[in-house]
Design brief:
Mean pLDDT: 97
Largest sheet: 3 strands, mixed
Number of strands: 15
Radius of gyration: 17 Å
Helix content: 10-25%
Order of helices and strands: EHEEEHEEEHEHEEEEEHEHE
Bound molecules: citrulline
Low-confidence stretches: none
Strand content: 25-35%
Number of helices: 6
């Protein structure tokens, strides 16, 4: 059975980090309702949800994806690139430690889980304002004994690698080629986002189901045409904090 770690929306979400979008008012109430729908969708798809309490002083703590990289035999606790987000990790250590052996990214490494795309035995890591080469080397050292190959990936125009590319099938990528060079991923089959929907490459694949933002109907049609089972979810309020569907959970086989 899959376990999903989630964290309730912080009352201070409006003070979140923002890099690529302009700040606008965020309704914590609406964000909580949307987050609740997301949680229920995960449960309906067979996940056992561990819901951590909100962190009133940590605006971005709902975006738990950035705090860890969970592999079958190891969880790597990140050192988030934004200093304001580093206090998010101790509660994740406590939650994940029940399920996995833990390793930690040490200073001067910085890395956000949103930059880490695991595709089979290859771990692609975005070289972004959040994730640096020191952390990429640390991940390579930690995962090489487990049979993984790590590849740093240049990303431009968006926050994280997984803003630009995620898996929409076991070995198929959903990608925005304006933000990451498709050639990096070699011969992997790919679906490109509709050009009018730049942020549409973030999808959450769960056992053949794809959790996907309602905000991108054109790209969704492309996914449907592929025969992918798409489940729409409205996370528009969390998108104002630069969040998307993968960032609100850490999902793994317990
Ligand atoms: C941040 O800038 O860190 C948050 N406001 C958004 C993080 C989104 N995380 C993700 O996509 N993995």
């Amino acid at each position: 059975m899959k376990t999903a770690i989630l964290r309730e929306v912080s009352p201070s979400l409006g003070q979140c980090e923002l890099t690529h979008i302009v700040r606008e008012p965020i309704s914590v109430e609406v964000a909580r309702a949307q987050h609740g729908d997301y949680e229920r969708l995960l449960v309906s798809l067979g996940c056992s949800v561990v819901l951590l309490p909100a962190e009133p002083d940590l605006p971005d703590a709902v975006f738990v994806e950035d705090t860890a990289v969970v592999l079958p035999d190891l969880a790597i606790i990140t050192r988030p690139g934004a200093p304001s987000r580093r206090p998010e990790t101790p509660s994740i250590v406590a939650a994940l430690g029940r399920y996995r052996r833990l390793a930690h990214i040490e200073s001067p490494g910085t890395i956000d889980g949103g930059d880490v795309l695991v595709a089979g035995q290859t771990i692609f890591i975005g070289e972004t304002g959040r994730s640096n080469s020191n952390a990429i080397e640390q991940v390579a050292r930690l995962t090489h004994p487990l049979g993984y190959t790590v590849r740093g990936v240049h990303v431009a125009g968006c926050l994280h690698l997984k803003s630009a590319a995620t898996l929409c099938g076991p070995d198929t990528l959903l990608i925005n080629p304006a933000w990451v060079n498709p050639a990096v991923f070699g011969a992997m089959p790919m679906v490109e986002v509709d050009p009018s929907e730049s942020p549409a490459a973030n999808a959450l694949l769960l056992d053949g189901n794809l959790i996907y933002p309602a905000a991108f109907p054109r790209t969704r049609e492309r996914l449907r045409a592929l025969g992918v089972r798409v489940h729409g979810v409205d996370l528009s309020e969390l998108a104002k904090a630069e969040g998307a569907v993968t960032c609100c959970s850490l999902i793994f086989e317990a």
